[in-house]
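Below is our example:

___
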Amino acid sequence: MAVATSSLPWQATLQHYNNRLSLKDYPFPCHSNPICNNSNFKRRIVSSSSKFNDHVVTTNSPSSKLQGHFSISGCGCSWIQDNSMVKDSAASNGRWKKWSALPAKTVDVSSVSDLFEFICSGPLVDKIGITPERVGQAIDKWLLYGSQLCRLFQLNELMLTLPQRARLYHYYIPVFVWCEDQIALHNSKFQDGDDVPPLVIGFSAPQGCGKTTLVFALDYLFKTTKRKSATVSIDDFYLTAQGQSKLREDNPGNALLEYRGNAGSHDLPFSVETLDALTKLTKDGMKMKVPRYDKSAYSGRGDRAEATTWPEVEGPLKVILFEGWMLGFKPVPAEVVKAVDPQLEIVNKNLEAYYEAWDKYIDAWVVIKIKDPSYVYRWRLQAEIAMRQAGKAGMSDDEVNDFVSRYLPAYKAYLPTLYAEGPSGSDPDRVLAIDIDEERNPILAN
């Protein structure tokens, strides 16, 4: 997309920044070590015999100031290591360009005009309503957001590769801008002096697709822009170890309810209590601890973490980022679930209670869509192979297959309805649907 030649205020802003910035005096700090290779970004592995050896992020870097929890299955950061494929939206006929794992050329982000054109070529701009004029008027914010994310992920912002640049400027920052718009729309419905409840944004996306890393980035941007946010996952509402044991006893032989994950394995009253309390954090000084789940407990079967370890959030909250692989799923006719897997019938029945416990709290939605649920298997397998090659404990191929097989029936039964109709009870005008490819990059939907 070429920059227009007429003299407009937003173009003057672009020219101002393009004249002011150069490689030698670019005003933001740079960090050269990819986060996945940094000692502050570590995977904590449970017993190698466990089928549920989740990877947990621990940080001492700027991100450690976030009171969040981010379990990065498969790390979700292949783009940081450039193992990625990016669509060149500016290329004729929308052809795909493959970029090698170690590109020979890097991208100089000091040229603001080039960055402007790159932003406008992204696959999400039309969907989000980001016009060239709007980008031009807010280019200083885009620069700041990019710099902050480079700091978070410990990337050299002056030497970003194309996959890194695309992930920041074609994905994370556009979604953040959309979230800002949703917050503004939400706030506009209240009068001055009203207690404004935080906006709840739901992120529904399959496991391994990078949703947790996306939420991680958004939460960081909210905090660095001085807006109080909180993150919560459906994982935080799993039954306790005792509750899981009872679930298995009540459903003998049902592999879908043998371990945590599917509908029925969550403490719904506890989730209602938590979400109710979070949405009431509207004043200065109001505080609460947000529950967390310890996936490493009981040899990987998991248990609710001790309350003393839960992070504390303080009001007034502006936004709550609520993520999960099955958010927005709604029951389907019995014949549909029977055709997918008879074991899914009880799961489908359990799902009837989930709207009142989860979805009704969500004001706006980000739905990350995949073409084939089998991507989940591939993503998990990649993660475990990488771990084994690094000399760490990881699941075998058979264990990965067993792990993912417990979720695939739900994907096959519920994703078509989610994609066709949107999340349960959602406003279509407040749903951002993002199609991603096998490399977890946003693409233009067909």
In short: Residues 9-443 form a domain with the Rossmann fold fold (CATH 3.40.50.300). The chain has one domain: 9-443. The chain is about 35% helix and 10% strand. Residues 162-187 form the longest helix (26 residues).
